UniProtKB/TrEMBL annotation:
Organism: Streptomyces incanus
Phylogenetic placement of the source organism: Bacteria, Bacillati, Actinomycetota, Actinomycetes, Kitasatosporales
Cofactor list: L-ascorbate
Xref: PANTHER family: FE2OG DIOXYGENASE DOMAIN-CONTAINING PROTEIN, MYND-TYPE DOMAIN-CONTAINING PROTEIN
Keyword Metal-binding found: yes
Protein name: 2OG-Fe(II) oxygenase
Length: 778
């Protein structure tokens, strides 16, 4: 099968000069002097008495884990002397160090124009049994690219320095008589094996790459530029088939090494990364493209089997251990754990960019951009590198025997210069809005419109944040293009609104009209899919202040628009839950609506308050479970001398009328066992309703099949009817026995008592006139 343009590009870049991830150099110890505070001059080669003096002024070495600095002899067991206590000199040392750094620069494949500098880090002493488990060095400076280990000559066994990268491993042993220098990239996992005899003494340095004058790069640029042109002009073809798509918006070329945000720069790339990135950058410029550096997270899922895997286990031929929890999931810890698994085929891979630099290599921003399979390429497959984490999933019946592996890689991201705005905007919505505003401010409204329109294919799913609404409103107004402006505002939700947006809302409404804004906010309010979100109404706490600010901005129609939208949402839920059981769920949901309803009433005008009251009067008495908590909230919030919000007195009177009617109801007759209830209209609910409506009948024996019994059970439980139900498992079908319980009477007594108590509170707080002194029923 013919390779795609991006795949050919990866092959071309892979032909760059290979570089080492580590290198070694030995040199005579003559002419090199060492002095340690508290010990004095130290003679080379080292002898045991001198080393013991070093240990006397040393301390246990620490190590880093994430942001923490730890001391754990089970991870790192060695002695450490800080660099300011150590002096390394002598007539031969400066020349030796300069020559060694130049040698390592070339061996590690760093750019010819760069210059290495060695910054002292520590003097380390390893005695018998001491070691350092596999780890990676943290990059302690933006310019740090690696580590230099200078082993002082001493007689010892063990204590080898083992360095790994991309599936390779190299072991370095120190000399008994000569200086041994080993340099390696900081992202290479390495360890010090336990010392078996004698002492291993080393000086460690941070390797810093100094900036140099740029050099003109040479290479097969024409072929690479042609590959880029083909990539950006040919339809994209997804890996698993389907219709061809629009040409890709970017190309992501994965580099081999790991970098930190601070350490990622064109002049600090490591090994083959430096030459490959320079070639790709030059080819991109020739093809009319821009380039940035990025940090990528790569996840690969492989078909895999564990060591000793027996396929017959999948078919249940061996008994499982009953004490095991889970079925085959096993986390893999540490480098090298993948060796316990044999990889089969690659099932899936995901690449996400989390940070990138600016096109000039400066600054940088946090992003979240998923890279599609037809947008990426690499010269070194991730499988040839060392993952930082792995997870094995054993066979689970219909899936499993997979190994997930995660990698951190840097990348060069390329896009055509004419599509640069959309390519960057997809990953950086904040940047896109700032750039659009800058163009509008400069008077380039046509350019801003064209750039904004290029965002349309992906803007809704680009991760726009609520805090960007203010910028989006200003850009939308400045574009003077209603369709494009609506597209920019589409991703937001109503809960992003705050009073500080009032002026900008008023401005876009003035520019495009309130009906236009109504269509935009209809999308902000969302539909039925958002109905049950827990914090859906939190924004209404700011609604009175927002509406007041809008009226001050001479935009009362926008305030009315938002109030109407908020009330429409609350009204829909109020009607739903007022007629929905069971009671425990209904009460919780209606009480949740009490604060939003209060804020709407506080901000509403007389016309909307009239609509709200008409709707409340049409609801069943269960609406009290929303209105009474609302009135209690209002009473608690009111300060002395402050007038109550308009409309609350009317709500209080409505509640008083309903409570009074409930409290005055005559007690149920002792022989009245009727229950008012309406079912779904099916034949079963008709039979159940006839039984419930009977004054004298308490028991119903009902031969009923399983599905029928389930339906009746669900109706009784959902409505919390005072009816017990049992199944007599004799004959066919079984008999469902329904019995009305005394709870029918006790519930009504409790309801009248609670209504009387609520009415007394209501009258005392809200100064209701009329009959309030109702004695609770028996």
């Amino acid at each position: 099968m013919a390779k795609s343009a991006r795949e050919r590009l990866g092959v071309l870049l892979g032909g760059s000069k290979a570089a080492e991830f580590s290198a070694r150099l030995e040199a005579p110890a003559d002419g090199v002097g060492l002095e340690v505070a508290g010990v004095g001059p130290v003679r080379l080669p080292l002898r045991a008495p001198q080393v013991k003096k070093l240990i006397a002024v040393a301390r246990p070495a620490l190590f880093g884990r994430g942001e923490d600095t730890l001391s754990d002899s089970s991870v790192r067991d060695t002695w450490q002397i800080p660099p300011d206590h150590v002096t390394l000199g002598g007539p031969a040392w400066p020349t030796l160090l300069d020559g060694a750094l130049e040698y390592f620069r070339g061996e590690l494949g760093l750019p010819a124009q760069s210059r290495l500098r060695a910054e002292p880090h520590a003097l380390l002493v390893y005695g018998k049994g001491q070691f350092f488990l596999p780890h990676q060095d943290s990059e302690k400076d933006d310019a740090m690219v690696g580590t230099l280990v200078l082993s002082l000559p001493s007689a010892h066994t063990g204590g080898e320095l083992v360095i790994g990268h991309a599936g390779q491993s190299r072991t370095y042993r120190a000399s008994k008589t000569e200086l041994s220098l080993v340099a390696f990239y900081a992202d290479c996992p390495h360890e010090v094996t336990p010392v078996r005899s004698g002492y291993r003494v080393t000086l460690t340095f941070n390797l810093l790459a100094e900036r140099g004058a740029p050099e003109r790069e040479a290479g097969p640029l024409d072929d690479m530029a042609h590959c880029l042109e083909q990539h950006f002009n040919a339809p994209a073809r997804p890996r698993y088939g389907g219709q061809d798509l629009d040409p890709p918006r970017r190309l992501v070329y994965l580099l081999d090494h790991e970098y930190t945000q601070r350490g990622l720069g064109w002049d600090r790339l490591k090994g083959a990364d430096a030459e490959r990135a320079a070639l790709l950058r030059a080819a991109a410029a020739q093809a009319g493209c821009e380039t940035v550096l990025a940090l990528a997270e790569v996840k690969e899922t492989w078909d895999a089997t564990s060591a000793g895997y027996d396929p017959w286990d999948d078919y249940g031929y061996e008994e499982e251990d009953e004490d095991e929890e889970g079925v085959g999931a096993a986390a893999v810890d540490g480098a090298g754990a993948d060796e316990d698994y044999e990889l089969g085929e690659l099932i899936d891979d995901e690449i996400t960019l989390g940070w990138w630099t600016g096109p000039d290599g400066a600054d940088g921003e946090q992003i979240s951009l998923y890279v599609r399979d037809y947008e990426s390429c690499a010269s070194t497959p991730s499988a040839d590198l060392k993952p930082y984490d792995s997870q094995y999933e054993g066979y689970m019946g219909n899936y499993g025997n997979t190994l997930d592996r995660w990698y951190r890689r840097a990348a060069v991201v390329v896009w055509p210069r004419e599509r640069a705005f959309a390519a960057r905007g997809e990953a950086g919505s904040r940047w896109a809005l700032e750039e659009l505003q800058a163009r509008i401010t400069k008077g380039d409204r046509d350019g801003a419109r064209a750039a904004a329109e290029s965002l349309a294919p992906f803007w809704k799913g680009s991760g726009v944040q609520p805090g960007q609404l203010k910028s989006a409103l200003r850009v939308a107004e400045g574009l003077q293009a209603p369709g494009t402006a609506a597209m920019l505002l589409e991703p937001f939700r109503i809960d992003a609104l705050t009073p500080e947006h009032a002026d900008d809302l008023a401005a876009v409404a003035k520019r495009y009209g309130v009906p236009w804004l109504g269509q935009v906010t209809e999308g902000w309010f969302g539909g039925a899919q958002n109905r049950f979100e827990e914090h859906r109404y939190d924004w209404t706490e700011r609604l009175p202040q927002l509406c007041a600010a809008l009226r001050s901005a001479r935009s009362p129609a926008v305030a009315q628009l938002l109030l109407t939208g908020a009330w429409t949402q609350v009204d829909g839920e109020l009607r739903l839950w007022a007629e929905t059981g069971p009671a425990e769920i209904r009460r919780a949901q209606l009480e949740r609506l009490s604060l939003p309803l209060l804020r709407i009433l506080e901000a509403a005008d007389a016309k909307l308050r009239g609509r709200i009251m008409a709707a409340l009067r049409s609801c069943p008495d269960t609406v009290l479970e929303c209105l009474l908590p609302m009135l209690r909230h209002a009473a608690q919030e009111q300060t002395a001398g402050e007038p109550r919000a308009a409309g609350l007195e009317a709500v209080a009177r409505e509640c008083g009328d309903r409570l009074g009617a409930i409290a005055r109801r005559a007690p149920r007759a002792a022989d009245d066992w009727s229950v008012a209830w309406t079912g779904c209209g099916c034949e079963l609910c008709g039979t159940l309703g006839a039984f419930l409506g009977s004054r004298s009948r308490r028991t119903l024996e009902w031969p009923l099949a399983k599905e029928g019994r389930r339906h009746v059970h669900s109706r009784i439980d959902t409505a919390e009817l005072p009816v017990g139900h049992q199944t007599r498992r004799q004959g066919r079908p079984y008999t469902l026995v329904l019995t009305k319980t005394e709870e029918l009477f006790s519930r009504e007594r409790a309801t009248r008592r609670q209504a009387g108590a609520d009415l007394t509170w209501l009258a005392s707080i809200w100064n209701l006139s009329g009959e309030v002194g109702v004695e609770p029923g028996p």
